[in-house]
Amino acid sequence: MKKEKKNKVVIENLNLFYGEHHALKNINLKIPEKEITAFIGPSGCGKSTCLKSINRMNDLVDNCRIEGKVFISDENIYDPRTDVTLLRKCAGMVFQTPNPFPMSIFDNVAYGPRIHGVKDKKKLEEIVERSLRGAAIWDDLKDKLKKSAFGLSGGQQQRLCIARALAIEPDIILMDEPTSALDPISTLKIEDLMTELRKKYTVIVVTHNMQQATRIADKTAFFLMGEVIEYSDTESMFRKPADKRTENYITGRFG
Amino acid sequence: MELFLEKKKFFSQNKKIFLIMMLSILMLMCFLLPYIQIIINKDNFCVTGLDILAGSKLGLADAGDGACIYFPNIMRISVLLGVLSPLIGVLFILLKKHVLAAGSFIVGAITPIFSLLTVSDLKRQIVELNISSNRVYIGFIWPFFLILIFGLTSAVFSVWLNGGEKLAEAVFFCFALVSVGLVLLITLYMIISGLPAIIEVGVFNFLFGSEWNPSCGKYGILYLILASLLGTFGAVIVGVPVGVLTAVFLAEISSKKVAVIVRSIVELLAGIPSVIYGFFGMMIIVPFIRNVFYGIRTLSQRPVVGDSLLAVILVLAIMVLPTIISTAETSIRAIPKSYKEASLGLGATRIQTIFKVTLPAAKSGILSGIVLGVGRAIGETMAVIMVAGNIVNFPELLGSVRLLTTGIAIDMAYSSGLFRQCLFGIGLVLFIFIMIVNISFMKISKRGVQIDATNR
Ligand SMILES: Nc1ncnc2c1ncn2[C@@H]1O[C@H](COP(=O)(O)OP(=O)(O)O)[C@@H](O)[C@H]1O
Ligand SMILES: [Mg+2]
User: Going from the N-terminus, what domains does chain B have, and what CATH number goes with each?
Assistant: First the structure.
């Protein structure tokens, strides 16, 4: 029925250790291009860790050891020759709590492009406008680009952070519980935005909220104690989970 | 049943009032004891407080007929206050105004301090009667301590009449008053002792006169001011990059082990007395400058000897490092991790993150560290004296200079008259500079707190 899409991210036999703690156990995932993939599971099961291993944010953690491979567009990002800077430019990240920089709205969005060498003012203005439009917040903010980003509401800040991630023109957008710090209305707006983003980007989102997964995700992976228990189309997983543990979780029997 | 009824107390209310009465009587009696003792050539004059109040002079037969010294008015006022305030205190107790009573007891207790301030005046009078000053001894004996102790104890008791809680509050308040009082006292003292000279020389001539030559009556401190400002400015220019980069290294780059070692060394640096820095400057920096610039002449056509503004700048830069490093490190560490994550997540390198996000976000903290450093640099005396050369010159980098602080220190020992007063005037100028620096520090750190608050 659906035409098979190309796989953007392929995780192969990924094992991750924080010191002695085996946080990810033999993960295998094939994440298709231009779809939304959700990671669900109880707290501490390794969703964030797995997400971060896709743009190597785990490199920042002391005594974190990684085995296995992660391919993005068929390139292994754990190859020693990988330029982490370019990798992160290709896979932008949005965090759980909105974390704009203490700068103006414009500078926040322009931060990434500037880092990557865009100096021309015209070009920057263009990028900022395009990114803010992409995050569906241009109309709200276009008159106060010079104002501090801290003046915005939580939902606006989170969309600003998404715009900031869009500004570096990534292929993949990684979101770690992007709505968990927001009120229901802002949450709905961000969800609408995600379905919009799906047209151009591969979106991977960690969520605590199973309704959210059913609303937006094409595919869903269920994590438990560092393992992927089940990974399939969202619809079929929620209608007819293959694994007993998945069923227990989505029917609210634990977690 | 009797849980909330007051237990019978060891000191009943009446006993306390009785004690206060006794203490104030004792305090009054202290003024009958020898309040001040003057020994001249083995002659021992003991003067009671009431004598001071009543008679206004003390005859010194030794020094010739009619020779006498007068007790300064301040001393008489302080004795009067000392006598009156216990009485007033008791009155307040009877009126059940316990806090006011405590206040008057405290006033009474500290009156002797004002008498102490007039000792030099007495001594001057005696010396003017041709009695050599090293044969004069002026002492304030027991009454001083007794008055203080009785006064403070009765103050404590009178507050206690109101219950323990009030007592504790009052004690804290008194301690707070001590430091506030000292600051006010110093400020007042600086203004009183510094202003007359400035007015006599003329504000403009004093601040903007370029000739400092006390033997010819020239008291212009422009070059001293300039040298102080340039020395401090230079120290900041040299010290800030080094300090901030060290702080970045400690907070962001180095491993924990290395950071601990470096940090403790920096803390040691802060504890080294300034004379030692002076030594270091004298033995290392000054010869270094002399050798590097050997044969060059300064603008004023003097050879470069090494003692110079440059040496001052370098020594001060080293001295302000610890302050700058520790405040900068603290404020860098206070930056939320989420900023760094966001920046790195966008593909910035660690170095880019430090310079584009962390340092700008920490800038108000870093700035307040710099201002603290400026405060230290501008007031530094000892280390500077040892490397500055101390000749009053238009300040140039390689030439010898005299700063405000060294100007005071060098001449204080032997100056007199207007010259000496002018040194106090310099002190006042320095004091004002430091006040400006401190007030801007408070402004900056307050603004920093506000920014942090809006970040939440
Ligand atoms: N920086 C870290 N150092 C050590 N252990 C960590 C670190 N981050 C996460 N962990 C551990 O790894 C496990 C998975 O964490 P995480 O991926 O954050 O879970 P989730 O996002 O699913 O709630 C948890 O047991 C957590 O304690
Ligand atoms: Mg998480």
Answer: 2-195 (1.20.140), 212-455 (1.10.3720.10)
